[in-house]
Each structure stands twice: as C-alpha cells, then as structure tokens.
C-alpha cells in the first residue's frame, strides 16, 4: 500500500491535536452536565425521507447502500427503505423525542456530541465530516421563553471555560424572528422567507446587492428595502437597541403586535445576558439564520479576531421541533461546530498540548529478564493514578530516555539495582529506585509507593501557545 | 410525523442507559490512558478499495453516495472514488499509521473508541452500527513479543474495573497461530486457512461436522482431522496445557519449529497472566479467529455466565498491520464490542444508573419574577461543582418536587423568602434557603455557598441491579 493522503473535507488530528480536541469535548460535556443536560447519542443514520423533509438540504445528504444489497438479502431491506447519514443532530433528536416520548420527562434537556456528515464542497472551516456539540431543551406542548435566555448563556459559559486554554473569547449575536417578521409584515412585505433569505446574504454580497434581491425576490419597494437594511444595521450590547428598533418602526409607520412581542423577548435576553455573561451577548438585527425553521430567538457566535471563520455556535427556537399529530414539541437549542473550532486552533497554532501521550512516566527496563520488575513498578504507579508505561526494550538508558523525550513524557523511572561486580573486579553498589525529570536532568531516589509528579505533569495539559 | 419506530440493528439508549454506556466508556478510557495509550479518532469513511482489500468482508460494507452526486459537481468527486463506512477500527488505524508515520513515535500505542458499521443481518448482540473500543501497539519494522502479553492484560484490567458496577467477570481465551499452524503443517496439512476456517466453526456446528469439513475442505484424512480436534480440545488456565500439546504432537509424530516457537510464546503469556491477572486468562487451543490475518497470539473474551453472547473482546498479533513497501508495521491489539456488552447489561437489567439526568439539585422557583434569584442559586452551586438546574415554572412546590422526582434528582432547593403578610393579616416569617432530600423528606436550612450533597449523590452512579 502506497502512503495514503488525507481526504479533503474529512479532518483527522495527530495524537497531540486529539488531546486538544478531547480537552475541549470534556470541558463542554462538564459544563453541559453541570447545567443538568442529559447526554444522549443517536444512531448515525436516519431514513432518507426524514432527512429530506426540509428539501433545501437534499444536496448535502450521504445516502447509504450495502455493497451486496439485493444480491444476498431478500428480507431485511426488502422495503427498499433508504438510509442516509444525518447532517445535523437536530433532525435525529426530534425523531428520538417522538420515538421515546413516553419514557422522557419534559421539559427534556439533552446534550449530544457526535459526528455529522454533509456532502458539501470542502472549504476552510467547512467539512464533509465534522463534530457538533448540541444542547437543546424540548417541551411537550409548551416551552417557556426563559429557556431562550438560558441556553445561549450556557453556551457562553461553556465557550468561556475554553479561554483558560487559549481559545479566543466569543461574541454571541442574538436576534428574534418575531422582531424581523413583525417589522417586515408591518412594512407590508408578506414574503418573509424571501426577505430573510436576502438579508442572510448581507455579509456575503453587501447592501447594494441585497437591495436588488429584496426588490426582485421579496417584491419590496426601494423604501421597504431600505427599511429592511436599516433594521439589519441595528446592533449593540445593551437594551438601547430596543429603542432604536422602536424608533425605526415609528419612522416607517410600522405597527405590529408580533414586533412588540419580539422586542420584549429580545430585551429580556439582553438584560439577563448583561448580568450573567457581561460583554458576551450582542443584539444584532441582521442575524437571520437563512431558511431554518426558527420562530423566536436566533443565535450565531463568532470567535473574536476570527470573525471570517463564520459562526462556531448557532441555533434558535423552534415552535415545532417535532410533532406526532397529537402533541407538538417546541424546542430551543444551539450547536457548536467543534471541528471548525478545533481546526482553527490547531492550524493557526493557537493552542497546544504539553505532550502527545497520556504517559507521565516511562519505566526503564534494565534487562529483558528484569522486565517483570519494571511492569510491577508501572502497575504501582498506575494504582495511584499516575499514567505509566514500560520502555519497549532493555536498550541503553540514553535510548530509553530518548523514547520518553520524543513523546514529551517528563519522567523516566530507573528500577532499583542490587550490588554487582564488573569483569575488572569493581563493585557497583546497589541503587534504589530513581526517577529523572528529563527536562531538568534532576535524578532522585524515589519510592514507587508514594512518589507523585507535580500536579501539572500528571496528565497532558492544553494551553495557549503565546499566552 | 407519525411516531417513529426503532431501526433494527441500530441500537440507541434512553438517557439512563446512556449514563451506563458513558460510565463504561469513561472507565475504559481512563484505564487505557493510565497505560499510556494515546487516543485518536479517525474519519468514519475509507476509500472502498481499501475496505475491500481482504475480500471476505465485502458484503458488510456500507457504500456512500452523495444524493446529488454528478448532478451538481464535476470536480471534487470526478475521480469517482467511492467511499464506504469503516467496518472496524483496524483498517483505518493501519491507514492512519501509514499516513502519519513521519509524525508518530514507534512503538505507537493508541486507543480508539468509535462507531463502526456492518451491513450484516441484525441478531442478538450483532448490530449494523456499534461502538468498538480498541487498543493496539504498532511498531516500525519490529514489535517485541512482550506486547502480546501486555495487551490482553490491559484489557483484563479495563474489563475488571467494570465489575465494580456489576459487569460480570470475563474470561480471556488465548491461543497462538504459530501453535496451530505448526501443528497442522507438522501433521501434513498444508491448507492452514481451510483448517482454521473449519475449526472456527466448532462451537457452532459441533465436532462431527468439523471432521467432515476438514476432510472435504482441508483435504484431511480421518486421523489428521481427529488430531486437529484433539488439539482444539486442549484448554486450561495454567502451563500444563503446553505439556499436553507437546504430548499430542509426540503422539501424532508432529515435529515443527513453528509449533515450538508458538508454545514458548503461549507459555510466556500464561505464566505472566497467572501473576498479573490471576484466573482471567485461559489457554484455549480452539480459538482460531477465522480468516483474520493474525500471525501470533489470538484472543477472545467471554462474559462469565453469558458465554452464548459470543466474544466481547477479540484480537491478536499481525506481523503486517500495514506496509508502505519500505517499512512493515507489525501490531498487536484487541477490540471491545462496547455495544454488545452494553446491550446485554441493559436488556438483562444487570446494571442501572441511579438517575436519568446529571442534575443533583433542582432549584425551585417561587415566582416567575423571582426566577433570577433561583438562577443565581443554581450558578452558586455549579461554581462549586454541583450539577443544578432551575425548575421550569413557578408551579406549586409539590409539582416542582415531582419534576425532580420523575428524573431521580435527589434534592430540591427552596430559595429564601422574606417576611410577608397574608390577606387575612397573618404574618408569614422570613425563611432562609432550604434544601430537601426528596427521598427521606428531610428539609434543612442550607447555605448556597457551602452546602454539599453526599459524595454518592453528586453525580449519577452506576451499579449492579442485584449486587
């Protein structure tokens, strides 16, 4: 087999990069669990018709086929049900809720950290296989607004925890579909989807093109289009944005109950966020989230200084996350693009692991006959929670130290030796167990039953490259 | 959407089942890391031609196709390279080693915990999508035998740790391909694969059919077939099995250098295992591992009392795990079938989680206006590592307690109240923060800055149903 090359769009990390990713996943999981979210994992596949329900995403789906399908099997797949890989964690979660509704307690809070697949053309930060970390709360029949305040704040906390390892701070941009829809309808624009679709392109194509789009696709007059652009230009970290929207509505003689409901909600979110996550949450009235079926709050998140990377954490409120015909399940949630974040951290060399293996101590082997003794030392260290492995061969100690050094392992342990006599008659005295810090070169006698490495060396640490 | 039904072969767990699975994954990971194995994760897909290299597994592969392939894209996939989902973690690991060889330090120890997919007909304990947890050590050019002793002992330790939560003990059955091959060749049977394939069916079809198979497919005489069966019948926990094989070889006038090398290796493994994992490792000369390309030790593992479930942890030594034409990479490893294990634990109700959510404390809400105070209490608890969530609504306290009870959450926290006066003039005195253990009903004043739940209640625990 010739040396294989990476597949574009299917990122993989080397062992030290995986330590960074794993640290991030562990941090997210801990924050989610501290907030009472239950972890679930769904299968990677869903029936194709369920994946295609929204239509727009059809080109992204990977369809599965068993290689010998049909040839060897007239039974299991005879219905011809096609399966595809899930392209997000929301569709499978909605299905899981319906399937298990009788066994879940609502409102149900869950987190879910899994890979998803999309057959899009790969770009920087856009992959065909990537990890998402989602939190959602779903209610049966109803879901109070306060969850729309809580969930972005949980993400603010989770992403904020990552600053300790050198992840840049985040800015969570929030908007409310009711504000946008109320304003557009109040202006006289009835094709709200078309307006949202046009506004969603603002960052990409600029205001002039958006005005043309609004006229061509949403049937807007120049005045209506300008009003939409003015709304999209409103942003700010405090509740003064609410007054600015009200002023704008007055100026364009827009009156709308929906707009007013949306503004009250948005104000509540900004007010709570100013207390619980100061400086993180910013109202930004241009956030549209394209065609996703959000009905209230919408969220996007940028990494400060890396805004061009796009959103690393997005979501919003659905009035109908799922429905079985009898009960409707509204939900609100956000999804972190973990692979997008990790690829930036690693490729821009922002964050690094202190070593490439868990091992804190390599136990040297004096002779192959004495390997059992080295095994026993390693076992004694592990029993006290110290990651340890035994050297691969009874090579010269210099080579065994190099084995540790290449992996960034900080300590090498030398087993005790008994008194021996060289061929020339020199007596080599007995030595106790010794441990060497190979960074400083310090070597000291050590007791396998009590020695501990410094806490910072026990496990690999992850930190900013230039803190 | 009508209520969906599960897909056969694609297991999913409810939140309390996922806590059991997650606990097992955490335990395995910790053991692997204590032994210095670096975690990696590979993409879910491999080029189809790589997946089909061994031929025998072709019917199991799921092939991927982008739904709009060809229609919208003349570029990225123009080569027509087909991708399939990996059916194990060994093929991707071998590819990862070749792809990253210049950046890895050998011998390279890695663990990998991921889903794999096989389009086989689903059965009890046999799934189309399932989680494997693998450890392997791979060398560049050479890999000393002692790793064939070490790796099953790491698995013995990892699986042994699970007994604390009620997982039955395991028995690791070991054999050595050199023993089998040396014996068969010494007998005059040259089609070793055909013999192994026949012997591999022993448990399924019984000795009489195996004798017929050996005659029909391996060209064995009745005497040769009986000798193979006699070898397969040898098993035992100590090195007496080595002598029994030697006696058998003598009786059939088999002399083979390969057999002798294999017996020395097998003896070393049994001897070390008797010291380091007493009672767990058993030599069993019928273990063949079918057509996998093992060249030395082979391993299978049964759950004691659940032998009919099949092996839950298998593997062996490959002299050529991977090769780039210049360097050959030998390896040895084992793979735990996590989903097979977890499905048995849950379906047979052997192991249970103490609750279905991480939450230790539900903070009650007195009035919706006072929700911010409940949020602040929950934040104070979380800041000290206590998983806490706030009740969904300012309902009657009885209803809020029921919310906690339905999830198995042990504590409900009632925010302090100030003195108030009822309509009838009764003065209700101020109350401090209080916490109720809803199992005992005990309710006491508590300080949000210092109260801790008992350690056993802090996080969900996992334990045997009938310990």
TrEMBL record, chains A, B:
GO CC entries: cytoplasm
UniProt superkingdom: Bacteria
GO biological process: histidyl-tRNA aminoacylation
Residue ranges occupied by any Aminoacyl-transfer RNA synthetases class-II family profile domain in the UniProt entry: 13-358
Record key words, sorted: Aminoacyl-tRNA synthetase, ATP-binding, Cytoplasm, Ligase, Nucleotide-binding, Protein biosynthesis
EC number from the UniProt entry: 6.1.1.21
CDD domains: HisRS-like_core (cd00773)
Keyword Heme in annotation: no
Keyword presence, Lyase: no
Annotated binding of L-histidine, by residue: 88-90, 118, 132, 136, 289, 293-294
Pfam families per UniProt: HGTP_anticodon, tRNA-synt_His
GO molecular function, one term: ATP binding
Alphabetized SUPFAM superfamilies for the sequence: Class II aaRS ABD-related, Class II aaRS and biotin synthetases
Catalytic activity annotation: tRNA(His) + L-histidine + ATP = L-histidyl-tRNA(His) + AMP + diphosphate + H(+)
InterPro entries: aa-tRNA-synth_II, aa-tRNA-synth_II/BPL/LPL, Anticodon-bd, Anticodon-bd_dom_sf, His-tRNA-ligase, HisRS-like_core, HisRS/HisZ
Family according to the record: Belongs to the class-II aminoacyl-tRNA synthetase family.
Subunit (UniProt): Homodimer.
UniProt-recorded name of the protein: Histidine--tRNA ligase
């Amino acid at each position: 087999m010739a040396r294989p090359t990476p597949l574009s769009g299917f990122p993989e990390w080397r062992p030290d990069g995986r330590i960074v990713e794993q640290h991030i996943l562990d941090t997210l999981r801990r924050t989610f669990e501290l907030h009472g979210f239950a972890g679930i994992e769904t299968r990677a596949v869903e029936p194709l018709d369920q994946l295609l329900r929204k239509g727009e995403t059809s080109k992204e789906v990977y369809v599965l086929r068993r290689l010998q399908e049909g040839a060897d099997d007239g039974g299991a797949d005879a219905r011809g049900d096609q399966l595809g890989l899930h392209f997000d964690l929301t569709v499978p979660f909605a299905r899981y809720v319906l399937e298990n509704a009788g066994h879940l307690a609502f409102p149900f809070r869950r987190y879910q950290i899994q890979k998803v697949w999309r057959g899009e053309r790969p770009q920087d930060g856009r992959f065909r296989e990537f990890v998402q970390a989602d939190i959602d709360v779903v209610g049966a029949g109803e879901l109070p607004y306060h969850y729309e305040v809580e969930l972005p704040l949980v993400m603010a906390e989770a992403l904020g925890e990552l600053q300790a390892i050198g992840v840049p701070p985040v800015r969570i941009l929030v908007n409310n579909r009711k504000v946008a829809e109320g304003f557009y309808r109040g202006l006289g624009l009835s094709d709200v989807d078309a307006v949202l679709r046009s506004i969603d392109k603002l960052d990409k194509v600029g205001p002039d093109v958006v005005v043309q789009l609004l006229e061509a696709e949403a049937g807007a007059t120049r005045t209506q289009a300008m009003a939409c652009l003015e709304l999209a230009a409103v942003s700010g970290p405090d509740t003064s944005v609410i007054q600015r929207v009200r002023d704008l509505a007055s100026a364009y003689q827009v009156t709308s109950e929906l707009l007013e409901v949306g503004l009250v909600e948005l104000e509540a979110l900004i007010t709570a966020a100013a207390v619980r996550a100061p400086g993180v949450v910013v109202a930004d009235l241009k956030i549209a989230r394209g065609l996703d079926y959000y009905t209230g709050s919408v969220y996007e998140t940028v990494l400060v200084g890396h805004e061009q990377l796009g959103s690393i954490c997005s979501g919003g409120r659905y009035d109908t996350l799922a429905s079985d015909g009898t009960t409707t399940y509204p939900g609100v949630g956000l999804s972190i693009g973990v692979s997008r974040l990790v690829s930036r951290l690693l490729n821009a060399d922002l964050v690094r692991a202190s070593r490439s293996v868990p091992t804190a101590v390599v136990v040297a082997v004096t002779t192959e006959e004495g390997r059992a003794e080295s095994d026993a030392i390693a076992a004694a260290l592990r029993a006290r929670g110290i990651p340890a492995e035994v050297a691969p061969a009874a090579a010269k100690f210099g080579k065994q130290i190099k084995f540790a050094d290449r992996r960034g392992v900080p300590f090498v342990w030398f087993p005790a030796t008994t008194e021996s006599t060289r061929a020339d008659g020199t007596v080599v005295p007995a030595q106790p167990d010794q441990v060497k810090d190979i960074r400083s070169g310090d070597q000291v006698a050590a007791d396998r039953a009590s020695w501990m490495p410094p806490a910072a060396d026990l496990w690999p640490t992850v930190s900013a490259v230039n803190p």
